[in-house]
Amino acid sequence: MQNAANSWRRWAAVVSFAVLAACATQKPTPPDAYHVAFATDSYVIDPAGHRVIGNVANMVASQSAARVTIVGRTDTAGSPAFNMQLSQKRAAAVHDALVATGKITPDKIETAWTGERPQSAAAAAAEPPGERVVDIYIH
Hints:
This protein is an alpha+beta fold. The chain has one domain: CATH 3.30.1330.60. The protein has a four-stranded mixed β-sheet with strand order 1-4-2-3. Strand 2, helix 3 and strand 3 form a beta-alpha-beta unit. The chain is elongated and about 40 Å long.
């Protein structure tokens, strides 16, 4: 009887570990994401970007518990140091525009930025403009 109980415990432990490992490797479902695109080497928000910002501000204003995370990104054109500064300026521009709507207070916004993503030279040459964005997540 003792061996059967030990076998059961070992089996349960293995199954539990497998379930935990599977959960840890799955990506969580991302919150709602919106994007403000930018021209190369620019952190000026165009009219389409202002529309996105207005839409996000309206959604957040209608959900009292909602918070926003913004992440500035760049493509691989330019030096890594330049790209990091550009990402920061883009994130700051979107942050300031969200606050300027009067519908989101700064304490509801988390701001971050990243540099370029490492990739091959061939991929960098064919990189889409979709990397020149600030991602806005509502959660």
